[in-house]
């Protein structure tokens, strides 16, 4: 398919990313595909949230420097375990100066993830795997080492750091969304419920 912008950008919902995520679920494994904007899917957002859903993830299966992809409400969700080098890279001034929203001031995450690592615990990152430009699924790239790991969008070249923060000079205007999550016992985490921000509304995130 060929990715294209909607004919009337002014009419685009700020939450269209969530509708497009339903289609993106077909590539929850992280495949590099171009997913077009489909105005006809806007109504699927409300349908998706008609029933609450949580997904428990066993973090013991996520090795340091690696990522797995799970599905929540039909959307791919990246779950990564970051090494000390990866965490240190998130604070580098040379990186921060290249990011659109390095301090997560725009509503793209629950309050308990409004921090430098954009997560409830530093070593575990959880992000909805849908580019905030036009809804493609970014690829996790560690080709140049863990301290320069990136998410790269195969459609229009947007890229994000491992905290899901969007780089300047690329089409994506917002950071990757962070779903609500709660740390459980026995190395498990629950996606879909936030103990630190129980009233967080994922459908209120920003989007073009």
UniProtKB/TrEMBL annotation:
It is an enzyme of class 7 (translocase). It is found in: Cell membrane. GO terms for cellular component: plasma membrane. It catalyses: a quinol + 2 Fe(III)-[cytochrome c](out) = a quinone + 2 Fe(II)-[cytochrome c](out) + 2 H(+)(out). GO terms for molecular function: 2 iron, 2 sulfur cluster binding; metal ion binding; quinol-cytochrome-c reductase activity. It comes from the Bacteria. Residues 91-190 form the Rieske domain. Its EC number is 7.1.1.8. Its cofactor is [2Fe-2S] cluster. It is a single-pass membrane protein. Keywords: 2Fe-2S, Cell membrane, Disulfide bond, Electron transport, Iron, Iron-sulfur, Membrane, Metal-binding, Translocase, Transmembrane, Transmembrane helix, Transport. Binds 1 [2Fe-2S] cluster per subunit. The main subunits of complex b-c1 are: cytochrome b, cytochrome c1 and the Rieske protein. The Rieske protein is a high potential 2Fe-2S protein. Component of the ubiquinol-cytochrome c reductase complex (complex III or cytochrome b-c1 complex), which is a respiratory chain that generates an electrochemical potential coupled to ATP synthesis. This is Ubiquinol-cytochrome c reductase iron-sulfur subunit. The gene is petA.
